[in-house]
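Weekly sync, protein design subgroup
Attendees: M.S., D.O., the rotation student, P.L. (late)

Item 1: inverse folding check
M.S. brought a backbone from last month's batch and wanted to see whether the design step gives back something sensible before we order anything. D.O. pointed out we never logged the input encoding, so this time it goes straight into the notes. Structure tokens as presented (392 positions):
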């Protein structure tokens, strides 16, 4: 089973250039999470920080109970063995064939006999569909095959954590789908904690259990996929629709005048590009028939049930629908008076004054965004003290 990863108040800079500040999140064990955001927001830097290749100036990175920013070099070496990493280009050795590339971590980090190495290596090559290509060099194969070879190499040490940097890089949409299906199948087989860094919207809509977004050097939001896919926050909605209208600009955030001018253009009938945000969330990608069920799914269901009282109504309704409770989902989605939020209890529907604010710096007006009342639930599933909100 995968392990939990938690970051607390991480800050990373290169000289005077700040990359991101105060990044706090949790990657639940065995679940698939996605970190998205515009280009240049430090997503790949975050991956490299998790594995210890880069060192943040402040904060904690706790992996299976150990803060890797405080541990010794020997402890960090052992923790790194828990990771499998798929880089954008596969990062294969050009002078080695696919077999030797895949076997390299076993030869480097274990004392296994060559017969054992061959057995494991061929198993991983078969897992990614490269049996028959093991004698070919990276320069002799397609980008998709190099990506799969890099994935095979990442798997040979049976990682508890998989880090995947831009799985669609250099691939056409069809082969991107095959690659992401492979990641889901691998998660089903080895139950590893998986983090995918991407700005591919199709991956975002169909693959993860959880999603987070970086923007303006901050972690804007992190939570179950339904939280971001149903969000009305301007920056999240703009990113998921690919529209030019919103806080995200070509090279940096926009000022108010630019945003107002663009909105006026749209009102005058000019296209803003992008697509409409579809209200119904696309079904999540499932393991290929014949694969084991993903163990992380059951753990996630139990976890999000506990989170339900803290989520906005659209996210709550989407989760309940996914859990198979359609009537309750419909009740949750119905708004009532401003400023109230539901409390699910075994005794019936109640309301509580829980503000869900949208700060002005992200396109809001610092006012509560709404409230809702729901039908009774069968159990008492928690408090309302973890409302997702933008960070200051």
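Designed sequence read out in the meeting:
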């Amino acid at each position: 089973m995968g392990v939990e990863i938690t970051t607390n108040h991480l800050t990373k800079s290169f000289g005077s250039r700040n990359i991101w500040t105060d990044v706090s999140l949790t990657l639940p064990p065995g679940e698939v999470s996605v970190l998205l955001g515009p280009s240049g927001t430090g997503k790949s830097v975050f991956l490299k920080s998790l594995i210890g290749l880069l060192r943040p100036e402040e904060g904690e990175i706790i992996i299976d109970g150990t803060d890797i920013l405080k541990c010794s070099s020997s402890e960090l070496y052992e923790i790194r063995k828990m990771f499998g990493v798929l880089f954008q280009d596969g990062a294969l050795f050009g002078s080695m064939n696919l077999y030797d590339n895949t076997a390299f971590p076993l030869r480097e980090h274990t004392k296994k006999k060559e017969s054992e190495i061959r057995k494991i290596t061929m198993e991983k090559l078969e897992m990614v569909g490269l049996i028959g290509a093991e004698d070919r060099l990276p320069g002799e194969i397609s980008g998709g095959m190099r990506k799969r070879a890099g994935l095979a190499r990442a798997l040979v040490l049976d990682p508890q954590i998989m880090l995947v940097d831009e799985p669609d890089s250099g691939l056409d949409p069809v082969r991107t789908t095959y690659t992401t299906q492979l990641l889901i199948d691998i998660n089903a087989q080895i139950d590893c904690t998986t983090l995918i860094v991407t700005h591919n919207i199709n991956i975002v809509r169909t693959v993860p259990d959880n999603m987070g977004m970086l923007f303006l050097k901050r972690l804007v939001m992190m939570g179950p996929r339904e939280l971001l896919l149903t969000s009305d926050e301007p920056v999240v909605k703009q990113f998921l629709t690919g529209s030019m209208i919103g806080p995200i600009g070509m090279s940096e955030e926009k000022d108010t005048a630019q945003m107002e001018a663009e909105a006026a253009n749209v009102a005058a009938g000019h296209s803003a590009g992008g697509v409409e945000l579809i209200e119904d969330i696309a079904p999540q990608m499932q393991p290929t028939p014949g694969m084991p069920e993903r163990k992380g799914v059951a753990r996630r269901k139990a976890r999000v049930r506990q989170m339900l009282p803290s989520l906005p109504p659209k996210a709550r309704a989407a989760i309940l629908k996914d859990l198979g409770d359609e009537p309750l989902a419909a009740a949750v989605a119905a708004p009532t008076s401003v400023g109230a939020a539901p409390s699910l209890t075994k005794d019936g529907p109640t309301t509580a004054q829980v503000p869900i604010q949208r700060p002005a710096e992200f396109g809001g007006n610092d006012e509560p965004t709404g409230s809702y009342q729901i039908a009774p639930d069968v159990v008492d599933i928690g408090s309302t003290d973890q409302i997702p909100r933008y960070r200051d």
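Discussion: DSSP finds 13 helices and twelve strands in the chain. The mean pLDDT is 80.
Action: P.L. to compare against the previous round before Friday.
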